[in-house]
Amino acid sequence: MEGITHKMIPFNKASLSDIEKEYVLDAMETAHLSGDGKYTFKVYDFFKERFGIENFRLTTSGTTALEMAAILTRIGPGDEFIVPSFTFSSTVNAFLLRGATPVFCDIRKDTYNIDESLIESLITDKTKVIITVDYAGIPAEYDKINEIAKRHSLLVVADAAQSVGSTYKGEYSGNLAPISCFSFHETKNYCMGEGGGIVVRPDDLDRADIIREKGTNRRQVLNGMTDKYTWHDIGSSFLPSDVLCAMLYAQLTRYDEIMEKRRNIWYGYLQGLENLEKKGFFQLPSVPEGIIHNGHMFNICLNKAKDRDDLVTFLNGLGIKAYVCYVPLHSSPMGKTLGWDTGMLPVTEFCGGTVLRLPLYADMTYSDVSEVCDGIGKFFREYSKVSGGKM
After folding, report:
1. Does residue 223 contact residue 8 with C-beta atoms inside 8 Å?
2. 105, 108, 114, 119 alpha-carbon torsion, rounded to 10°
3. What is the pTM of this model?
4. Domain boundary at 221, 253, 285, which?
5. Which candidate among 230, 239, 384, 389 keeps its CA 20 to 30 Å from the CA of 19?
6. Mean pLDDT of 160-182
7. How many whole angstroms separate alpha carbon 38 and alpha carbon 144?
């Protein structure tokens, strides 16, 4: 295919300003480099005031937030958890580490979230937890999922790593399940480099604090509730440095700016690619009624795996870094050791082979978006010539 010259457009780039530098330096100068300093609590105040989220604790990553969640559920050997296969490995690893067994559920064709209509058929007397994944910042169908969980006395844990600031029927992500886990990795809308957070039920907060502090009641000591701390439970060092929390708080002071930029880019893609969708080259994202997404991700779903792979190669040749999102966990080497294989989750496997994530970051320009759209258009014009117009 004939190439065209473009500047490099990365897949992701954190949006940083002088505010981040100011707050990080301030955290360093206060000599409180470890966790639970003033910026940690500023983040908590923001989440409470902006989203109505309470019982929130920052963690070292979205992964460790999920690991805390798994400990809090008391899941263990002999228990099962229902989870989509179209997700990152951390979603499942956190519960595998407790000895539980994953039961993979297929996903919806429109949102790529867990298919709530299939969940009930997977429940057994061993099921303890249902895990949702808010793919691309679009919350799962929580009304139905929570109703199923309540009827079967199960616990819902939301992997909300991608959905900070998204809403479902007017309620913010983080308030949609008994336990929710966020990520503030560099690739997320609001970042602290590496970091995450967990929202727990009120009755779980004291235990969450103990788990987060290596299984000790150290937080009670710091709050003057006791004069020495002791070992009470299993746990680990899950609290992040206040220097990283300073970066996150700076990002949150720019919350509306970053959100507006990302959503504008998202809708720029939607407008720029709609004519190609009408020609049948791919499927654009679908946002169900009642959901306001946070502009975290823009993806397209190609018709065949070869189309997706060829498009990735073509775009990379133009300096545009598109990204293949997930290899479905059930068909991965680890998934196969657990008794799963290809052919078991048809929608997941189709999406795993055909979904492509386009570059999206707050400081992208409209020119950048146009270049990506033009590159995709160029690919399909050349593709049509080679294939004789057949898709």
Report:
1. no
2. -60
3. 0.94
4. 253
5. 239
6. 98
7. 39
Contact 91, 70 (CB under 8 A): no
If asked whether residues 159 and 276 sit together in one domain, one would say: no
Could you report the per-residue pLDDT of 330-383, keeping only the tens digit for each? 999 999 999 999 999 999 999 999 999 999 999 999 999 999 999 999 999 987
Question: What CATH number is given to the structural domain containing 374?
Answer: 3.90.1150.10
* Distance separating alpha carbons of residues 117 and 45, to the nearest angstrom: 37
Report residue 325's pLDDT band, with 50, 70 and 90 as the boundaries: confident
Residue 221 falls within a domain, yes or no? yes
CB burial string 86-106: b at 16+ within 10 A, e below: bbbebbbbbbeebebbbbbbb
Residues 261 and 205 in one domain: no
Helices marked H in the chain — which ranges?
18-29, 38-51, 62-73, 89-96, 116-122, 142-151, 205-212, 218-222, 242-253, 255-278, 305-317, 333-337, 346-354, 366-387
Mean pLDDT over the full length of the chain: 94
> DSSP secondary structure string, 125-174?
TTEEEEEEE-GGG----HHHHHHHHHHTT-EEEEE-TT-TT-EETTEETT
Cβ–Cβ under 8 Å, residues 112 and 86 = yes
Is pLDDT of 4 > 70? Answer: no
Give pLDDT tens digits for 202-236.
999 999 999 999 999 877 767 767 778 899 999 99
Q: Residue 167 pairs with which residues in a beta bridge?
A: 172, 292
| Domain end position, chosen among 253, 278, 311 | 253
Could you report the per-residue pLDDT of 257-316, keeping only the tens digit for each?
999 999 999 999 999 999 999 999 999 999 999 999 999 999 999 999 999 999 999 999
Q: For residue 334, give both structure tokens.
A: 């680890």
Dihedral, CA of residue 85, residue 91, residue 94 and residue 99, to nearest 10:
-20
**Token duo for residue 72:** 């809090």
Q: How far apart (Å, rounded) are the C-alpha atoms in residues 110 and 135?
A: 11
Q: Are 383 and 35 contacting, i.e. CB atoms less than 8 angstroms apart? A: no
The least confident of 32-41, 182-191, 221-230 is 221-230
| 63/259 Cα distance (integer angstroms) | 24
